[in-house]
Design goal:
about 350 residues, homodimer, alpha+beta, about 45% helix, Creatine Kinase, Chain A, domain 2
């Protein structure tokens, strides 16, 4: 197993299955953990950082968190490889761009990854396609237990797990889902979703997390604080009350559009597919925007000559690092636009 | 012969043949004439206007200007029929929208038409595909002579033909060509063409003449004054110096684009055709814009599955009145957008 092999599929987060997958692309849970008796990373000397990386690498690999894992020395990885991992949501942008000793342990089915020396000593994440937080919680607790058996995590009887950023203190748990809300965007009701997120104290972000714009019609919502609540409370509220609200809004907008403006939907969907099949130069942003509308068409059963699986894979495979990995060469942005267009024509069976 | 029959073809001005037809869509010559001893139209009583219309109608029909002519009582025609004639460039917008007694005599091959009671008592025009002003001049002089044999035109020994607007006094001649300048538009050099037109004292207008915006990539250039020059001088200068200048600019821009940015051209051309074939709702403006780029692709031999003839016809047949005539029913704008998209898919062999 090597990184380039990832480019053959869309990984877990874009598999396009699981509950409510018409709206919920993927679910993600993340835990922040730090070793007891060691300073937080920003307070570590360079040597301490190196020691931490080596020690945590050994502990995690020994813990056997998944049948097959890949360890990536992120500091030594090429820029292209680091970007590939970001595009697959296996490491954060921050982790890709830092300049400290750091690594990532990745279950090869991409359902779990652990960042070593990110903001905290350990950031454990579990990903699931669709709205599948219950299984994700069970999985992340299993991994947490395996690691806790080998490492002593900083824990305070009153505050809970201690973390570099105060917003993570407590359970250290962050829950998020990636939502596809094209109909709310099309009807102009997306503000309603933003207000709902605000009222529920949720953060709403773009496709690549903190500090990124909402790209096209994709929105990531997550809980903002973890102190004073149990993991079960946070997750249960998220699954049972919050996410279904957004799903309900989006589905209502979709059925409203179909009832009142079916041909406006068809127009957007058909044009999008046609452009993806015809372009000779195309950016990843435009590709994402057009694929989003094609995905809507497939989900509404208005488009039958393209599969959801293909669309989901293309979201990822047309991004800069994936494209270059797939084609096996580094390309300047202008060359990428041409290569991406050619790749799309091939995959979408252009006329 | 009736008006609806016109919708079966693109008429003369979009036939897509003739010299320099890659850039020059069509050539047009127009003469303004007024009867001696009668006031200009704005000075006529309603009764005088009616008399003029009846008398000129009789004279023109008797003159036998073409083997087959159609007389249209424009005042009595439906709005749809009047718009159809405007879209075919057989009458002006002003003539279509006036509320006085008026008519139009049209050679059924659409190479010539005469408006009765437009701004002047008579406006005679001859149209030719491509840059073909020499033949157009011979033809309009022939028609002028035939009419002059039956009607006494207002003529002043010193000023020449007298006309309602001083800019037409003299020969009463206006020469114009419709240019297709997509490459100059794409390279941003269109301003150069505008400056050249200005320096040559030419007026530059949109697709439907005076007061209309340049639609997409089509520009109509015409001489501005006719006093003190012979018909031959005006036409010769236009054919030999002015028009070739624009053709040269546009051709240079096209070959420059192909050399430096062939895939940017292909991208625009292929996307345009794809959208025309895929849209479910489309306006006439967008259709015109996209067809213009398809036409460029055909002329540059970058697109082989669509013929120039088809593209030229579609420019006309997708316009509001043509579309409604072709489909045999009146449609609201929203219905037209849908019907137009369906018509385009059928004509362009959509997948």
């Amino acid at each position: 197993m090597k990184l380039a092999d990832f480019t053959r599929s869309a990984g877990e987060w874009l598999r396009g299955v699981g509950p409510m997958h018409d709206v919920v692309i993927s679910s993600r849970i993340r835990l922040a953990r730090n070793l007891a008796g060691m300073p937080f990373l920003t307070r570590c000397t360079a040597e301490q950082q190196r020691d931490l990386e080596a020690r945590l690498r050994k502990d995690i690999l020994a813990a056997g968190i998944a049948p097959q894992v890949l360890y990536v020395d992120v500091a030594a990885a090429s820029e292209l490889d680091r970007r590939l991992l970001v595009e697959r949501h296996l490491i954060s942008r921050h982790h890709a761009e830092a300049d400290t000793p750091r690594g990532a342990v990745i279950a090869v089915d991409e359902t779990a990854s652990i960042m070593v020396n990110e903001e905290d000593h350990l950031r454990i994440q579990v990903l699931r396609s669709g709205l599948d937080l219950t299984n994700a919680v069970a999985e992340i607790e299993r991994i947490d237990d395996l690691l806790a058996a080998r490492a002593d995590f900083a824990f305070h009887d009153r505050y809970g797990y201690l973390t570099a950023c105060p917003t993570n203190v407590g359970t250290g748990l962050r829950v998020s889902v990636m939502l596809h809300l094209p109909a709310l965007k099309m009807t102009g009701e997306i503000e309603k979703a933003f207000r709902a997120a605000h009222d529920m104290h949720l953060a709403i972000r773009g496709l690549y997390g903190e500090g990124t714009e909402a790209t096209g019609d994709f929105f990531q919502i997550s809980n903002q604080t973890t102190l004073g609540r149990t993991e079960e409370q946070i997750v249960e509220e998220f699954i049972e009350q919050m996410v279904p609200k957004f799903v309900e809004y989006e589905r209502a907008a979709r059925s409203g559009l179909l009832q009142r403006r079916a041909n406006a939907v068809d127009d957007k969907v058909q044009r999008s597919l046609a452009v993806l099949r015809a372009a000779r130069l195309i950016s990843s942003e435009e590709t994402m925007y057009l694929l989003s509308l094609v995905r809507l068409g497939v989900n509404l059963d208005r488009l039958r000559d393209v599969g959801l699986q293909t669309v989901n894979e293309l979201f990822l495979l047309t991004q800069p690092a994936h494209l270059q990995k797939t084609l096996g060469k580094e390309l300047a942005p202008e060359q990428r636009a041409e290569a991406r267009a050619g790749f799309l024509r091939k995959r979408l069976g252009a006329g």
